[in-house]
Design goal:
It is a single chain. This protein has a five-stranded antiparallel beta sheet, with no helix packed on it. By secondary structure, the protein is mostly beta strands. Helix content is about 5%, strand content about 50%. Strand 2 and strand 3 form a beta hairpin.
Length: about 120
Amino acid sequence: MLGVQLDSGISSHFGDTHFMFNGSRLTTDGYLTYSGVTEDNYQFKLQRSLRKDTVITVFSTYNKITSYTPDKGGVTLNQVAQFGKNYVLNNDPTSQNYFGYNFNSKSTDFDCGVWQGTCRLNVNH
């Protein structure tokens, strides 16, 4: 696993702005044959005081997971006897257990902006 995290602390030179960034990557070949996983995660948050009683916050996160996972309940006893106890997928494109046919990719992201503070509405008639 590789990762980086940055946290600016509060900077009074930029309206009490502070930010946080976190990024990580997890990779594994997996115990089972041809069952690797890669996961990327990123987060960003920025907060800034606009006035004494008003803060704006922006937050974003992104996650992506790719894996090779068979779409079946498991292997047969004959397959375990022939290929070993950690067998699940193979590199034979003529087989239903070919890792290339058992690929999953999932991505999610979330973005949000929040305005916190006192709002005053002045209406003139």
